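Q: Here's a chain of 508 amino acids. Please give me its 3D structure as C-alpha cells.
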Amino acid sequence: MKFPRSSGILLHPISLPGEYGVGDLGDEAVRFVEFLAASGQKLWQVLPLGPTGYGDSPYQGLSVFAGNTLLISPQRLIDAGLLTNEDVKGHSVFTVERIDYSRVKEFKGQLLRKAYDNFLRARETSEFETFRQFCEREAVWLDDWSLYRALKDANDQKAWYQWDSELVSRGPSALDRARGVLSDEITAHKFYQYLFFSQWAAIKTLCHQHGISIVGDVPIFLAHDSVDVWSNPHLFKLDNERRPTVIAGVPPDYFSRTGQLWGNPIYDWERMRQDGFAWWISRIKAMFEMFDVVRLDHFRGFAAAWEVPAGNKTAEHGEWVNAPGRDLFATLRHVLGDLPIIAEDLGMITPDVEALRNDFGFAGMRILQFAFGGDAQNPHLPHKFVNNAVVYTGTHDNDTTRGWFASLKVRKVTEENAYLGQTRKYCLEYLNSKGREIHWDMIRAAEASVANTAIIPLQDILGLGSEGRMNLPATESGNWNWRFREGLLTDKLSSRLRDVCEIYGRSD
C-alpha cells in the first residue's frame, strides 16, 4: 500500500512534558496534536505502547495487546470524578527532563488503585456497564493479562517462569485457585486497561479530527517474561521447563561489534502455520484498531531470524533461520485486507527481504544519518530514494542529528577518525551546508526528497544534542527516559516546520 505525500513527527508519549513524572494522554498530548496540525503534519509516530518490562524498554513488553498504564492521565481521572485534586497533590516534585521509573510506577500505581476503589463505590453508574462491555469484548487477551499481572504482583514482580511450577505450566486447578484468591486484583487490572484504552481512543479521535494518522510500532519478538509467552508456550521454541532453546538478536553491525543479543524467545513458525497464523491475525488486527499505520520492527526477521543458542553471552555465534513471512502476510492480507505497513528494513538486508517487502507493497525506511559514510550509491542518500519509502533523519536508536554530527568532528588523525572526517565532509558537501543548523539541513533534505513519507524525531525539530537521545542499542540502562520541557513547541517553530512542508508539497 502506497502512502500519500506527507510529513510527521516521531515522539513517544512518555516524552511529553507534565507534572506527574512521565508523559501521558492528557492535556499535553492534546497540545502536541494541535502542534502537529498547526505545523502541517499528517502523522504522529509512536513507539510500542504496551506495558514495559526489563529495562523499561517498549521493545521488551509484557504484553502485545495491553496498554502501558503509565500513560494514563491523572488529570483525565480527575475530570471523570475518579480522583480528586487532593489525591494527586501528595507526590514529590519529579524531574522534568528524565523519567524516574521506580518513583513514577509507585506514584501512578497508588493513583490507579484509588481510582479503582472510587469506581467500585459507584457501581450504579453507566460507566460500570461500559466497563463490563469492555471486559467482555476484550476477554480473549484481557483475562490472561489481568491474571498474569495479578500473579506478578503476588510474586514480587518475578518473571512467570520463576513462579510455582503449577502456575508456570498453567495447571487448571492452580489457575482456578489464583483466580479466586486474586479476584479483586484481577478486576483492578482490567479496569486499568479500560482507562488506558478509553484515553487512547480519545487521543486517536482528536488526531482524526485534525486529519492526523497515528503510526504505531510493532516489535517482531516478545519478551520471555510476557503474558503472551506464558499463555501460548506452544508457539515458541522452548524446552520442557519453558525456557528458550534459542534467542533472538542480530549479528555484528553498525551499532555493536559483537552483535545485539536481545534475549527474546523465537517463534515456532511451523506450529503457527498449522492454525493459520491465528495468533498473528489477532495481534495485527488489534494493532490496526489502535493505529492507522503499523511499522513492523526488524522486518528482516519475517524472512529469516538470527537465532543464537540460549546461554551465549554475545550474538556472534548464531545462524540465520528462515521464517514464513510470505505465507504470513498473504494470510493477513486475505483476512484483514490492505495492510498499511512500514517495513523496518535496516541492517543486513538481502534480496529475499527486499522481495518480501516489495511484493506486498510495504514502504521501506531510509535514514539520513546512514547516508554519508559511503559513496554516491548509498541507498540512504536522497537521490537514491524511491517513492514508496519513509525517510527519517534518525530513529529512536540513533543519536540526535546534532549529536551525531558532533561525533564526526575529530582532532586526532587515525584510520577510524579519517572515516568520520570524510563522512562529515561529504555530509556538508551533499547538503550544501555550513553545519550551523545541521538538523534543519537534514530536515529540509528529508522533506524535499521523493519519498512519499518523511518523519522527523521531535528532538531534531527542537535542535537537541545528545542529551535528547532516546536509546543507545546494546546498553542496558539509561535509556527510554527522555522528556522535553514545557514551552518548547512555539508558534515560531511550528511556522518554520509548516513552511518547509508546504514548499515540498507535504501539507495542505
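Q: Can you summarize the key feature?
A: The mean pLDDT is 95.
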